[in-house]
Backbone:
């Protein structure tokens, strides 16, 4: 029998506005517990919320980036439920009339590009955090109460863990380009719930949707979807029926665990928020916001392919964060061999940089361009270039000074190289026999020997040529 997996995601993203959504408290991660609070975000009787304009701007940018309709009128509602991290007893959110609807994100799949629908983007507020101490006490930190969120609700358009990860990747890189959230899953500024069920493709029968809560990494999302697909197929094949459930992912046991049979919409008793008027945004105001938006990752990637003649994959990597893309573009202004540049940035530079921490290198783009010019002009060979770059990362300094200090200037003098070649040939008669017998690879070994004798300063291409000529003449 064959089955289809049906996946939809709900993604909560904390917006990096200066202040909270409905009060003037500072919006910043961490801090001494319960110091960034006021009567409004604690929901004290009589306190009145005032909507933060910056929150609307950020949410509208997200809506625009994901091709949504942005409504002129939207409405805030109270979502009522009790939980210790929610002192007010309700969360301010948008439900029936959200700011943005009907967008999409395009992802790459093994079968080509695929559009994943975005059902809605709504503005809401975050809750506090419960901290569990070693003494089995639970302590409450309300600093996060009222931090602005957007909830991005996708359509159930994904059909595998891979697609879900690609979707999250696209959402994250876009929001980071917009600079409206740092999207750190490990700090909770991006959180993902998965809705998943399966369909029997022959009978059309579908399993009950399971919602997997609060996954804290892309990897966990992928694995939870793969696990849950198998679990639901097994249930269906055994003829067992399940109710809608809420589950969590256990990263150690690598399985989903039942938390509860699901609440329904009615349990929350949504009501319009009486203390906030409907939100109106004019087209004119929106246009001003959109004007401030940077070029987004997908467009930029396409432009990199076009302007720098890069393969798709390279362009994808180089535009994965805005800082990295800016850096490559700065460099491309100084160094015109775009392919060589991309190879060095993707290899030697990126393996020393943790993009999750932002793109930081301890030297200017111009310094790297200078180094690459030394390599390209044959002043130093490729390996020497790598050594210099390493020194630039570890000790700092300008490439020219480092080349001199490290004695890496490449030999320009062919006769000096020739004498090393002669020595090596004399010392390795058996290698010559092997090469004559057709083992071409052995020449690499001999090149290595010459490079060693020259302390890395010989030009490997010249050495290679000299060796080939001399062996042929023997
Ligand atoms: Zn406050
Ligand atoms: Mn929500």
Residues:
């Amino acid at each position: 029998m064959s089955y289809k997996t049906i996946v939809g995601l709900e993604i909560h993203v904390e917006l990096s506005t200066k202040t909270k959504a409905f009060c003037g408290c500072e919006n910043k991660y961490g801090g001494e517990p319960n110091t960034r609070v006021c009567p409004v975000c604690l929901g004290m009787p009589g306190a009145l919320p005032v909507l933060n304009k910056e929150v609307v701007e950020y949410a509208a940018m997200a809506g625009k980036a994901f091709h949504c309709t942005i409504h002129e009128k939207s409405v805030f509602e109270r979502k009522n439920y009790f939980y210790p991290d929610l002192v007010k007893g309700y969360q301010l959110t948008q439900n029936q009339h959200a700011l943005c609807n009907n967008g999409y994100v395009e992802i790459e799949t093994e079968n080509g590009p695929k559009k994943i629908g975005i059902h809605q983007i709504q503005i809401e507020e975050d809750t506090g955090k419960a901290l569990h101490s070693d003494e089995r006490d639970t302590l409450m930190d309300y600093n996060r109460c009222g931090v602005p969120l957007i909830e991005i609700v996708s359509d159930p358009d994904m059909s595998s863990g891979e697609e879900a990860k690609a979707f999250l990747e696209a959402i994250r890189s876009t929001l980071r380009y917009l600079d409206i959230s740092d999207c750190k899953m490990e700090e909770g500024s991006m959180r993902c719930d998965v809705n998943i069920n399966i369909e029997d493709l022959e009978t059309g029968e579908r399993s009950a949707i399971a919602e997997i809560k609060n996954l804290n990494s892309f990897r966990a999302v992928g694995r939870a979807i793969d696990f849950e697909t198998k679990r639901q197929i097994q249930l269906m094949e055994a003829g067992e029926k399940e109710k809608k459930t809420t589950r969590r992912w256990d990263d150690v046991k690598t399985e989903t665990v039942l938390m509860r049979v699901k609440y329904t919409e009615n349990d929350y008793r949504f009501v319009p928020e009486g203390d906030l008027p409907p939100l109106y945004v004019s087209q004119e105001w929106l246009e001003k916001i959109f004007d401030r938006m940077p070029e987004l990752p997908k467009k930029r990637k396409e432009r990199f392919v076009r302007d720098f003649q890069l393969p798709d994959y390279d362009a994808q990597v180089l535009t994965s964060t805005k800082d990295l893309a800016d850096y490559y573009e700065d460099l491309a202004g100084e160094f015109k061999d775009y392919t060589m540049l991309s190879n060095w940035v993707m290899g030697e530079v990126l393996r020393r940089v943790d993009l999750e921490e932002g793109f930081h290198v301890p030297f200017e783009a111009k310094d790297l361009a200078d180094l690459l010019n030394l390599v390209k002009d044959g002043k130093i060979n490729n390996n020497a270039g790598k050594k210099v770059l390493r020194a630039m990362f570890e000790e700092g300094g300008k490439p020219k000074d480092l080349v001199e200090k490290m004695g890496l200037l490449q030999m320009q003098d062919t006769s000096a190289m020739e004498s090393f070649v002669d020595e090596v040939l004399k010392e390795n008669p058996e290698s010559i026999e092997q090469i004559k017998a057709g083992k071409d690879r052995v020449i690499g070994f001999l090149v290595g020997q010459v490079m060693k004798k020259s302390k890395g300063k010989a030009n490997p291409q010249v050495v290679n040529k000299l060796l080939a000529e001399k062996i042929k003449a023997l």
About this structure: The longest strand covers residues 112-125.
